[in-house]
Specification:
CATH superfamily of the largest domain: Periplasmic binding protein-like II
Strand order of the largest sheet: 3-11-4
CATH class of the largest domain: Alpha Beta
CATH architecture of the largest domain: 3-Layer(aba) Sandwich
Structural class: alpha/beta
Mean pLDDT: 92
Low-confidence stretches: 1-25
């Protein structure tokens, strides 16, 4: 199996030139017809639930994001089973996870990208559309019966519409989820809550009260000292607040937000809702309830403060709770207990984002359509990433080897294998030693599959979140090529200015009485011009597509 572990300086240099030199995007009917004729190795009657097996041995090049926690291994069972089941050998171009997005851009721009480009988050594909370097995958979903079946069964057409570009096509195959789910929230020392007689906070006001009670009992402690601040300061905390305050912030920040009442997009970083959120967080910092270093410190510093009893709350997801916080506390404060809390409600209600129905997925190089095995490749992608069987295989591995099923169908990891704390101390690891449940192949799927690796505690958390109201999706606003060039010049300066201003207000480096001056600075960076571009693109798309 061929593995490419490095990129040459030539590839990096030529990538910069090629990004500017490529032609226009889209695919003609002639292109589509010719691609469908490239069916060597494909199955004639491939359908929903079928095992894809190529009719001749095939190999497909794939870009591989190498995770430092489970570096790629040539002898993984994953590769062997794919070859046995699908008659396909994958040829990874291996890129360190930390460099993945940059290297992917360079490879695509240079025309050297592998045919299959996983770990692409919806929106990242937009930069490559006008060059014609990536495939308009929506032209070819008839080759993907499992993908089509899940979109129809789970009602995801409106979600896919948000991915459509100016030509009405989408260029990324996203991971598909059956239901909305929220992983990230806040983890809190529950032993401290119990000691002080505190209940789980239902909303952000009660969250403040909880932190204040902790501060009163432990004056030398910052109750919340947060992580996930590099490169986006308190990316998770601000994302949670933005979601529940009727705006966007942190990881979820975007320079546009749909105003249903006005029937148009507005700039979120200057709205009343955004200011209200900033005032709330500033109050937490001002009252000593949130560590000011939260906004600049690295993750290790935040974890160390938690482990040393210098803080009682921190941003989390299911894996960081098990892998980071509990081991750190066990080593220093063995009686400490920490758990997720249900995401507090905010002024916008007891809500959660609906965007989690789609997650990172795949781009396909436009060169793929000229490959004689194109149809077989699309069938293979459909089986591995979108069929129930392929998704279970990518996540759990091989039944009878890495896992078994009990009488009611519950999957049980082999006791000699660990994964996210299911069998702590086991000699083998599902990701490190077998290659399963890795970020390149395992995402999306039914709620049953998603929850299958959850602990009872995490299942209870997800069940507690199930009655939240799902926020509506914003409508599409695909830019044409000229609009995209203009928007690209504005997007980063606007986002950076909002982020800088938010940090200054929250930390008290700038008084909130200067809000109007901040708004003027944002407008000087082109916020009005940007929103005009967005609304023009939206109106044109709505008129063309209804």
């Amino acid at each position: 199996m061929k593995r490419t572990h490095t990129m040459t300086a030539v590839a990096v240099a030529t990538g910069m030139l090629a990004l500017a030199a490529c032609g226009s995007g889209g695919a003609s009917d002639d292109d589509t017809g010719a691609a469908l004729a490239n069916d060597a190795g494909s199955m004639a009657d491939y359908g929903v639930g079928d095992q894809f097996t190529a009719t001749e041995p095939l190999s497909f090049p794939i870009l591989y994001s190498d995770h430092p926690n489970y570096p790629i291994q040539d002898d993984w069972m994953l590769w062997q089973e794919i070859e046995e089941r699908a008659n396909v050998t994958l040829e990874p171009t291996v890129v360190p996870m930390s460099d993945y997005e940059q290297k992917r851009s360079l490879l695509v721009g240079a025309g050297d990208a592998p045919l299959i480009l996983p770990k692409t988050y919806p929106g990242q594909e937009a930069a490559f559309v006008s060059s014609g370097a990536i495939l308009p995958v929506s032209d070819y979903i008839d080759l993907m019966p499992n993908f089509k079946d899940k979109v129809e069964k789970w009602g995801l057409d409106a979600n896919l519409d948000t991915l459509r570009q100016e030509d009405g096509k989408y260029y990324v195959l996203p991971g598909l989820h059956e239901a909305v789910w929220q992983d990230y929230t806040i983890a809190v020392r529950t032993d401290i809550m119990e000691e002080l007689g505190l209940e789980q906070p239902k909303d952000w006001d009660e969250f403040r009260d909880m932190l204040a009670a902790m501060k009163a009992a432990y004056p030398d402690v910052y109750p919340l000292s947060d992580r996930f601040s590099i490169p986006t300061p308190t990316g998770n905390l601000l994302n949670l607040l933005g979601m529940t305050y009727g705006t966007s912030a942190g990881w979820g920040y975007a320079n546009q937000q749909w105003d249903e009442e006005a029937g148009e997009f507005v700039f979120p970083g200057t709205t009343d809702e955004y200011r209200e959120m900033v005032e709330y967080l500033h109050g937490l910092v001002e009252d000593g309830l949130v560590d000011p270093e939260s906004f600049t410190q690295d993750d290790d510093s935040a974890i160390q403060k938690l482990a040393n009893g210098k803080s009682f709350a921190i941003s989390t997801n299911a894996q960081t709770l098990v892998n980071d916080y509990r081991p750190a506390l066990a080593a220093t404060l063995p009686d400490a207990e920490i758990s997720k809390i249900r995401l507090p409600a905010g002024p916008a209600g007891d809500v959660v984002s609906g965007t989690s129905l789609l997650e990172n997925g795949l781009m396909i190089s436009s060169d793929a359509k000229d490959d004689e095995n194109f149809v077989a490749m699309m069938q293979f992608i459909d089986w591995l990433w979108y069929s129930d069987e392929g998704q279970e295989f990518a996540k759990w591995g091989v039944e009878g080897t890495t896992y078994t099923k009990d009488a009611d169908g519950t999957r049980v990891l082999d006791p000699g294998i660990d994964f996210i704390g299911l069998n702590p101390g086991a000699p083998k690891h599902l990701q490190k030693d077998f290659g399963f449940s890795g970020g390149v192949f395992a995402y999306g799927g039914t709620t049953d599959l998603l929850w299958s690796t959850f602990s009872d505690e995490e299942v209870a958390f997800q069940e507690s979140m199930a009655d939240k109201e799902v926020l509506p999706l914003q409508p599409p606003f695909p830019f044409d090529e000229i609009e995209r060039e203009q928007a690209t010049l504005l997007e980063t300066p606007l986002k950076d200015t909002v982020q800088q201003g938010t940090l200054q207000f929250v930390l008290g480096q700038r008084d909130l009485s200067e809000w109007d001056a901040y708004v003027a600075e944002i407008e000087a960076k082109g916020s009005t011009q940007y929103i005009e571009l967005v609304n023009a693109a939206h109106d044109r798309y709505a008129e063309a597509n209804g």
